[in-house]
Amino acid sequence: MDDTNLVDLLSKGDDRAFRWLIDNYKNKVASTCYSYTGDREAALDLAQEVFLEVYRSISNFRSEAKLSTWIYRISVNKSLNWVRDHKKFRQNRSIQRFYDNDKNPEIEIKSQEKNSGLIALMREDDDKVIQEALNQLPDNQKSAFILNKIDDLSYKEVADIMEISVSSVESLIFRARKNLQNRLSDYYKAQKS
User: Fold this and answer.
1) The domain spanning residue 40 has which CATH number?
2) For residue 86, what are the domain limits?
3) Lowest mean pLDDT among 56-60, 98-102, 116-120, 151-155
4) Exposure of 145 by Cβ count < 10 A (0-12 exposed, 13-18 middle, 19+ buried)?
5) Can you list the positions of beta strands (E) in 16-163?
């Protein structure tokens, strides 16, 4: 189903179209929210809020961007608001992805299996330190890094979601990577001492 048809059906209150939207975006939305919160229940609650927002605001959707970009933008904004509201919250789990298990249709958390250098460094003992390093990044660096390195979106997709230029995304990711390297380097040096 293309965006135009889907938006048209959603605008008319078509329940099947909304069900299709949820079925096709629930894991991506929940995974994005989890990347920010580190809390499964909070991520699932936020995912519900995202879909409610989409349902209520579909008439405001401008076809200038893809529907998926708009949904990601809502997911990021709701997640950032949650993080700001829970500033004291420091999660101690690894960055994980949601996936649909064929045997169990429930959304589950599964260890991320990516070849990214930073993700490959993650081990159970390092989870808290890495998540805390991510949490210390400025929001814009954290968003760009999570969307690109964890959610595996292209620079162009990240730029569309964040409503900035591709070169700004490149700069944010470069600075995020450098900040993470500095924080993690300091931690690992202290561990060796």
Assistant:
1) 1.10.1740.10
2) 3-192
3) 98-102
4) buried
5) 96-101, 104-111
